[in-house]
């Protein structure tokens, strides 16, 4: 497994757990009246689901109907963080899998890259994650990449004045047109120093006006979040501590238990 897959696993946890419940509803394909959450515009760029299916197949062969897809999402995200140089921590198991998709709820549940900080903080607060935890979770943007379609509005026709000029030139080199092909693999990284290590360079860069997305840079302009950015920028251990705390809370959002859900045989489909 490579580092890109680890990034995908971490993103899976966020996209699954912030929508209704940590219940693997994200993994359902469109079938039998279900329309997949993967079809939402908020799921743009998500990939590597095949590896979760590979893990599930191996687990089913060893111990059928014992480990839920929801637990696999949570456990793989935890291990993905460690692979990326992030914190290591224990995580609870025992979640059940949803029998339905929540496509209609995805757009209002998952913040967009250009939403206001108030909206983003309110969304985290609604599932029990405070401002400090929200700032830490956004630090996961330290790894991975962003498609140009999500950032060219900060570059064209004029450069966003909150962008560091030298960084803006780098971004224009990565995204040379105001109208990129949405599917083109043109992308930029938030953290150029350690792009595949989950560390506090993300916050160091924000303080230099090198935030890739609007939501990233807003962390420094909002008085509620700036103190945490400043503290995380100088203390990687503190960042990891708060990230662990916040992701544990995220992973425990409204889990299905007993007969509220099921343990799917195949993560892509409800049991027949």
TrEMBL record:
What parts of the sequence cross the membrane? none
User: Cofactor(s) for this protein?
Assistant: heme b; Ca(2+)
Binding of heme b: at which residues?
A: 141
Amino acids binding substrate: 111
* Catalytic residue list: 15
Q: Quick one: which residues bind Ca(2+) 2?
A: 191, 194, 199
Catalyses which reaction(s)? 2 a phenolic donor + H2O2 = 2 a phenolic radical donor + 2 H2O
Q: Which GO terms describe its biological process?
A: hydrogen peroxide catabolic process; response to oxidative stress
Q: Which InterPro entries match?
A: Haem_peroxidase (IPR002016), Haem_peroxidase_sf (IPR010255), Peroxidase_pln (IPR000823), Secretory_peroxidase (IPR033905)
One of its Pfam families is peroxidase
Q: Which residues bind Ca(2+) 1?
A: 16, 19, 23, 25, 37
**Site: Transition state stabilizer. Where?**
11
Write down what this protein is called. Answer: peroxidase
Q: Which organism is it from?
A: Quillaja saponaria (Soap bark tree)
- Domain Plant heme peroxidase family profile: residue ranges: 1-271
Detail the disulphide connectivity of this chain as listed in its UniProt entry.
Answer: 17-22, 69-267, 148-175
Q: Which UniProt keywords apply?
A: Calcium, Disulfide bond, Heme, Iron, Metal-binding, Oxidoreductase, Peroxidase, Signal
Q: Which family does it belong to?
A: Belongs to the peroxidase family.
Lineage of the species this protein comes from: Eukaryota, Viridiplantae, Streptophyta, Embryophyta, Tracheophyta
Q: Which GO terms describe its molecular function?
A: heme binding; lactoperoxidase activity; metal ion binding
Bound how, and how many: what does the cofactor note say? Answer: Binds 1 heme b (iron(II)-protoporphyrin IX) group per subunit.
Keyword Metal-binding recorded: yes
Per the UniProt entry, the Enzyme Commission number(s) are 1.11.1.7
